[in-house]
Design a protein that fits this description.
By secondary structure, the protein is mainly α. Helices cover 56% and strands 0% of the residues. It is globular and about 55 Å long.
């Protein structure tokens, strides 16, 4: 599940599932506006871990800016890998599927996001929205937009950010909500990578089979090739339907879909 569109939809599906299941928690009782902010952040964050690969499509999202960020993340990831690997971990080059593909990074991203939004008055959220909307757009539309057309991505991201924040009351969007959305988007990415042939070392630095970078994955029979027919023909469409369904349930509960009042989107409720 390493293609951009599938990752982005997995972030939306994960955010929808969290807000639906956490009905007795504040994150499950958001206003429609706050829910949309979280959805944008989670969808973009589901592409964030791949910034550790300078040649990935998402690394060219904002041209030289994200390419430079990608190079830095790749170097840090590679350094951490070299320092923390055991003799059973392969002696590889490069930092892809390293530090940014771990739960440690997801927690760090969530904490930093929360802290930035909490300590700023109003400037942080628009910047974060712009950045993560860009990642989501690049992931979803990588086949329709030229790889290095950063201007097109920037204009589209800015339009989405302005449209969302103009409708949104920023005071209703808590810092914790933003942090949780970014964290859940990263985790959705890891789960997607885990069912590919390479697996994902998400549990680093916990040693498994005497390896600190153990690639978590199901048995080989359940793994898929990145961009293969199983993903593109089966998984991606099903995931899209699930993401839309969960989003509709969450928005119905928030009162944003009055036309669906009385319609049970969850049959057993």
């Amino acid at each position: 599940m390493a293609t951009g569109p599938t990752h982005a939809m997995s972030g939306l599906a994960a955010w929808g599932a969290l807000t639906v299941l956490a009905s007795h928690h504040p994150v499950g009782n958001l206003t429609p506006q706050a829910w949309f902010v979280g959805a944008a952040l989670a969808s973009g964050a589901a592409l964030l871990p791949d910034l550790d690969h300078p040649e990935s499509t998402v690394s060219s999202t904002f041209g030289s800016v994200t390419l430079a960020l990608s190079s830095v993340l790749n170097a840090i990831s590679h350094g951490v890998y070299r320092i923390s690997r055991t003799k059973r971990d392969p002696n590889r080059d490069g930092g892809h599927r390293g530090l940014t593909h771990t739960l440690v990074f997801a927690v760090l991203a969530a904490v930093v996001t929360t802290a930035v939004v909490q300590t700023s008055k109003s400037w942080a959220l628009p910047i974060l929205m712009f950045f993560f909307c860009g990642l989501a757009v690049r992931g979803l539309m990588h086949e329709w937009s030229p790889k290095h057309d950063a201007v097109w991505i920037a204009v589209t991201s800015l339009a989405l950010t302005i449209a969302c924040l103009k409708w949104t009351d920023q005071s209703a969007t808590t810092a914790a909500t933003c942090g949780v959305a970014v964290g859940i988007g990263c985790i959705a990415h890891y789960l997607g990578d885990a069912i590919t042939e390479q697996g994902c070392p998400m549990l680093w630095p916990v040693p498994i089979a005497w390896r600190t970078w153990y690639p978590v994955a199901p048995p080989k029979i359940f793994r898929m090739r990145t961009g293969g027919k199983v993903e593109l023909v089966l998984l991606a469409p099903v995931l899209t339907v699930v993401a839309i369904w969960l989003s509709a349930i969450a928005l119905q509960r928030a009162g944003a879909l009055p036309m669906l009042n009385g319609v049970r989107l969850i049959p057993w409720t």
